[in-house]
Amino acid sequence: MDEKLIDAIKKIHKPDEWVHFSSIGPDGGPHVTPLMMGMHEEGLLFSFTGKQKKRNLERDPRACVSICKPVVMSHVIVWGEVDIRHDDEAQEIWNGMITEAFGEERLNQIQRKLSLEQTSLGVLKPDRYRIYDID
Description:
This protein is of the alpha+beta class and about 140 residues long. About 30% of the residues lie in helices and about 40% in strands. It has four helices and six strands; from the N terminus they run αβββαββααβ.
């Protein structure tokens, strides 16, 4: 990922905070949900549990995420395509994302095997972004 994007996100987002994630719904309109987000060299990370997001992304992998700092207008918007993953490497990445956000103890409480039917790792690979009012 672009270093400028990584730096901007780190200034306004903590791993245990929520962002607004938008996929394209079956009628072509936005389907927006709050999600936790992590970062990895492969892209922005999301823990998908809902079926609608996965169906939307299987049909059309384009997505957008809005990351903002509470109370002020500073924000980052990222557009890209999402890969939905369940492989062994994805499991390690998901475990790391949960551990970074909530700690090892919480990971042990919610430990789960990634699968299409349950929790999936979504990796958004940015193709463009907008940074607003971040030093």
